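thread: overnight batch results

M.L. [08:02]
morning all. the overnight job finished for the chain we discussed friday. pasting input first so we're all looking at the same thing
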Amino acid sequence: MSHPLSIAFRTTAFVVVVCAILLAIDGWNSWQSRSDQLEQMRVATSNLARAMSQQADDAIKKADTVLVGVVERVEHDGTDPEDVARFRRVLAMRVAELPQLDGVHIYDKNGDWVANSRRTAPENLNNANREYFVFHRTHDYRGPHIGIPVMSRTTGRLLVPVSRRINHADGSFAGLALATIHVGFFSKFYDSLDIGKAGAVALVHENGTMMMRRPYSPDAVGRDMRETELFRTYTTQGPIGTAYIKSVQDGVTRLNSFQRLDNYPLFVVAALSKDEILANWWRETLWHSGGVFLLTLIIGFIGWRLVRQFQLQVRTEAELRQARDALETLNKTLNALAMEDGLTGLANRRQFDVALDNEFSRAARNASTLALIMMDVDCFKQYNDIYGHAAGDECLQTIGRTVAKIAGHRPGDLAARYGGEELAVLLPNTDVAGAAMLAERIRSAVRDLNIEHAGTADGFVTLSAGVDALSPSARKEQPKELIQAADKALYAAKAGGRNRVCSAASLAAA
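M.L. [08:03]
and the structure it wrote out:
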């Protein structure tokens, strides 16, 4: 009967597993595609950062090479008027050769202009307060110094200063040589890079100063980046690295690849928007995931219809089984009601007679004994007259429960209401002595109930019992003989003063 239910369960499990596998495979493929896309963009941004690093390093290196020659000439030839005129021609030639240069300048130890690459010499120009001048005046370092971006006092343009210290013969500070690079030079190169609509590239000094950024903003140049997540990530990971960072400039989360310049204290950052990186992936994922989801819905719907059919069949069979079980239960209930006394809950007379015949026959076949206890509530008519029939019924119910509790320990024993206030207990495989002992226990338990009865000598409800046992194999007795013998013993107990147990054997001996 459970076969259709098993089919429904297996069908449901199969459909669920198939749908789950389809969704899992699609999800895994989508996630793998996402990982591949991010990895490709990581490589792309790393390559872009490497190209930017090389471009910046080359541009600064060329400017620094000019400064090396200028410093050597000044320290060797001095700054006489004839030398200054020659310096000016040489500097102008170098600037013309290098498009990234805005100008090349020489300043004395006081920050005053000595020579530059421009046709018109600036007047009263002193740069002693510039960061790069202060650095060289206070440091013996002879290498190139990359200063923070400055606004030109002559042209008004943003410039990146590259400078070297000039010394006297005794090693004391004699001034500096300065080459300035257009910020626009880097901007023009960065504008040529394909970084999407929300991408960004930047050139940052290792002291935390923003040198150049695309998207370009004059306010961004020179900004302190030391408290940003980008700068902290760079200082933590080292000269080369990649990280997802939310920009403090515009709030966009980007894949950032950074790389330090080989020869100068600068690093570049190439950043692509994470949303733009995954835009194509999202479109493709939505299309094929939508198709897989639709297919899953179709499979699920077909499976649901099959399961519904199985469930309908199972429900119909279950209802038939329930109807059958209900009918069987009803039959059992009716049978029990037909064999049970409605007042006391003990077996009724009909069940007693059937059980007596069956046990009598079994005792005859097995050559065993069959005992019977006949009991009667003493002075029960007076109890009804004094307390009423309702109280009498309650009294019989209480006594019935007591008898059932004491006499119901063995499966074959049967306690029954024989009629009125008369009760009987049928005991297979029990002799007279055993039956008498049980009868005495019942009698004593009923007395201990202390049910008040003003019509008896001691004022409480009691019962009398008669006991007998037969071995049907010994002679051809009839069941009624056992009843008659036990009943006779009961009458003897009544005649002997009630509230006692008498056996047929004791009467024969007397």
